[in-house]
Write a structure and sequence with these properties.
Blueprint: H1 2-29, H2 35-40, H3 46-53, H4 56-100, H5 102-121, H6 127-130, E1 145-151, H7 158-173, E2 177-181, H8 191-204, H9 213-222, E3 230-234, H10 242-255, E4 261-267, H11 273-277, H12 280-283, E5 286-292, H13 296-309, E6 316-317, H14 319-331, H15 336-353, H16 358-370, H17 378-384, H18 390-399, H19 401-428, H20 436-443, H21 446-463, H22 470-479, H23 485-494, H24 498-511, H25 516-527, E7 529-532, E8 535-538, H26 540-546, H27 556-577, E9 591-592, H28 595-602, H29 606-615, H30 618-621, H31 624-627, H32 639-647, E10 653-655, H33 656-667, H34 684-714, E11 718-719, E12 728-731
Parallel strand pairs: 1-4, 1-5, 2-3, 3-4, 6-9
Antiparallel strand pairs: 7-8, 10-12, 11-12
Main location: nucleus
Protein name: Origin of replication complex subunit 3
Keywords: DNA replication, DNA-binding, Nucleus
Length: 736
């Protein structure tokens, strides 16, 4: 019994190594070359020796996993910052566009109410009469269909989709029944039935097989909805089929007494578009009204002011990026959606490329929670510092935490002053119809600021005057800006009449109210003059000081002097506060400047991108077996990548036979190594099975080869064999 007890006592000690051995088995399955050696060393002290040899590897894996987790947390932090910043930008854009059209929306609502009251004045039919399948016989005036034509001025109807969606929501908020139909509902393929089914689906919230207006009339009467108008919105009537739209309008005019339907149609070109699309008998059934929305340029200026000038989220762009966005907007026929999409891509690229961009999300989050007063506290940066990679923490340590916080505070202050001056210039250039996006591109140019600063340094050395002298700052900036928009605006201010100059000063007072150092200068200029009877007059206090007289200055010469003072004030603001974002320290945190990355993301080079992805596929798949091999081809690589890498060794023409043999040599795994028993003569049955497996392997390799060639042809990198050279394929793309 003693041996039995001894074996029982030894069993726990043996089970522990066995458990470790079982846990390590999955790691050795991937390394087939070392599997036999591990089996040989599985007995005796080999277990302990292998456990000791492998003890450092978990620490290395732990370090690597910690680094990966740290990098993943850092990427997640920047992604959260991007989502927060873009959410703020997107909501601001929607509010701006809604605010631009608020007056037009209110005008449309008043017109809908007036039209509804006019229709109700013709009398309200009873339930039995209103639900009959035939119209009511009345006079011609009661069959008029009230139609509102909304001029959008857009070349592309994409921007109008959001506008008419906002119109529908505005009318629904006032109790109207609204249905939004697109131009696709009025296609010749769908016919009039498609329009009716679209109406019934939106009003009845159900799909009807039978499209009949009597169903809609029954819904309007039975559901007690007869106290509100029914508004049908068509986003772009010029894209509709003329015959289908004409039939739809004639049908609605027959039922307008039973169902008070009011039509609202979008027009992108001119208000005379219905005459070119509809016949005369249909036009006679319409009672049109005209509404004009803001132009695409006006909407663009409003978006640029809120997002890029005032910086609602803190995110900014550099000069080259701003110029690219302007050209992209113009090349896309002034489509605002394309500009917003490009801006979103620029924002995403900034947070993916700049390591310290997470700070922008922290500042914005803090401002939304506690206000701007605590938006630049050191705790925001120190709170997220432990989550950063080591090299970023070292960089922040070199910059000194306090100096970084002070730099961010100064960055915000200087940029706010810059934005105020830009808005003052834009307000002064409104009379010349200068677009804010064009002015922004010039205002962001760092070369103009650096050249101005260098000129001031030269003057200081030559004349011995301080660089902060207002006189030299104004003079040198104006002389270096000949032909630019800024100098054009300053010259325009000198020529403004008295009434327009007075209004400009009042607008400047509203714009500069948040910056006391600029606001005080504007108030000082306003205090010297007053506006009476259409003329600017000098204040009595100032007159008594200078001339001891109470006579006002009404001459043209004196009015010119006042304009000169206003132009000098604007010139001094430009000289003192006009510092582009790229010339301020720590601007890399908030400013995106890589125009090449943005251009590649928007315009792109698809053929080059395909070639790069095929040659560097391991960066996308992130597999360890292929990334460790470097430029050496291994069987685990993707077939198409192997084929395209082999194609780099050929010229214009690739011989299919040589290409296949090279592919086959790489795909086939070495099978003869380490098989000493293969020298023995096998049985005939085993030889037959081996030949069949080799044939199957050959067929599968040929199938994989053909599939890879077909994929390269589909991607446009190869041209299939011709009749003259059936054994060769031609390369289409060369190099990167």
């Amino acid at each position: 019994m003693a041996p039995t007890s001894a074996s029982a006592a030894d069993s726990p000690t043996q089970s522990a190594p066995d458990t470790i051995e079982n846990n390590l088995q999955p790691f050795f399955v991937l390394h087939k070359a070392s599997s036999r050696k591990s089996e040989k060393r599985s007995a005796g002290t080999g277990k302990t020796r292998r456990r000791i040899d492998l003890s450092p590897s978990p620490t290395k894996k732990t370090e690597k996993s910690e680094e990966c987790d740290e990098q993943h947390r850092f990427e997640q932090l920047r992604m959260e910052a991007f989502e927060l910043v873009w959410s703020k930008i997107n909501s601001t854009i929607k509010d701006v566009l809604r605010g631009i059209n608020t007056n037009v929306f209110d005008e449309i609502h008043r017109w809908v109410c007036e039209s509804f009251n006019t229709i109700k004045s013709f009398g309200t039919p009873g339930i039995a009469e209103a639900t009959r399948a035939f119209p009511i016989v009345t006079d011609a005036s009661s069959k008029l269909l009230f139609a509102g034509l909304v001029l959008t001025k857009n070349m592309e109807f994409v921007d109008d989709l959001l506008t008419f969606e906002e119109v529908g929501l505005c009318l629904k908020s006032h109790g109207c029944h609204v249905a939004n139909l697109s131009s696709l509902d009025f296609s010749a393929k769908n016919g009039i039935g498609g329009c009716l089914r679209g109406l019934l689906r939106q009003f009845l919230m159900a799909t009807m097989d039978a499209a009949d207006m009597s169903i809609l009339a029954s819904w309007y009467r039975e559901q007690e909805n007869n106290n509100s108008p029914v508004v049908v919105i068509i986003d772009d009537m010029e894209r509709c089929c003329g015959s289908v739209l004409s039939e739809f309008i004639l049908m609605l005019s027959e039922w307008v007494v039973k169902i008070p339907i009011i039509l609202l149609m979008g027009v992108s070109t001119t208000l005379d578009a219905p005459r070119n699309l509809l016949p005369s008998n249909v036009l006679q059934q319409l009672c049109p009204s005209k509404f004009v929305l803001g132009s695409p340029a006006e909407r663009m200026d409003a978006v640029v002011e809120a997002v890029l000038v005032k910086q609602c989220s803190g995110f900014s762009v550099g000069h080259k990026v701003a110029v690219f966005l302007r050209n992209y907007f113009l090349n896309q026929d002034g489509t605002l959606i394309s500009f917003i999409r490009a801006l979103k891509i620029a924002c995403a690229l900034h947070f993916s490329m700049e390591p310290q961009s997470f700070i922008l999300g922290g500042l914005l989050d803090e401002e939304e929670q506690e206000g701007e007063k605590s938006g630049l506290l050191p705790e925001i940066i120190l709170k997220n510092a432990p989550q950063l990679p080591l090299y970023v923490r070292n960089q922040m340590a070199e910059q000194n935490g306090k100096s970084l916080v002070h730099g961010l505070s100064e960055l915000k202050r200087l940029h706010k002053c810059w934005s105020i001056v830009v808005l003052c210039l834009y307000e002064a250039g409104n009379c010349d119809k200068i677009r804010l996006l064009d002015l922004l591109c010039e205002a962001l140019d760092p070369d103009l600021y650096t050249s101005k600063a260098s000129n001031n340094v030269v003057l200081e050395n030559d004349c011995g005057l301080p660089i902060t002298s207002d006189r030299f700052m104004r003079r040198k900036y104006s002389t270096s800006q000949k032909g630019g928009l800024i100098s054009q605006i300053i010259r325009k201010v000198r020529d403004l009449p008295a009434a327009m100059l007075y209004q400009l000063l009042k607008n400047w007072e509203k714009i500069t109210v948040d910056v006391p150092e600029i606001h005080d200068k504007v108030k000082e200029l306003q205090s010297e003059f007053r506006f009476e009877d259409g003329k600017l007059k000098q204040n009595a206090d100032d007159i008594s000081k200078r001339h001891s007289s109470l006579s006002p200055l009404n001459t043209e010469k004196d009015s010119k002097a006042i304009s000169e003072k206003a132009a000098a004030l604007l010139d001094s603001l430009v000289g003192d506060f006009f510092r582009p974002i790229e010339c301020i320290p720590f601007h890399e945190i908030v400013c995106f400047k890589s125009v090449e990355k943005l251009q590649s993301a928007l315009i792109g080079d698809p053929r080059r991108r395909i070639q790069v992805d095929l040659l560097e596929f391991y960066k996308i798949l992130r597999c360890s077996c292929c990334s460790k091999s470097g430029n050496i081809l291994v069987p685990s690589m993707h077939d198409t990548s192997v084929m395209y890498t082999l194609a780099q060794e050929h010229g214009d023409l690739i011989n299919l036979h040589d290409w296949f043999q090279s592919f086959k040599a790489i795909v086939l795994r070495p099978s003869k190594k380490g098989k000493p028993k293969s020298k023995q003569s096998p049985l005939p049955k085993k030889r037959k099975d081996m030949n069949e497996s080799e044939n199957k392997s050959e067929a599968s390799i040929q199938a994989r080869f053909c599939r890879a060639v077909m994929e390269l042809q589909i991607t446009g990198l190869l041209r299939m064999p011709s009749r003259r050279r059936p054994d060769c394929v031609q390369r289409v793309a060369f190099g990167l």
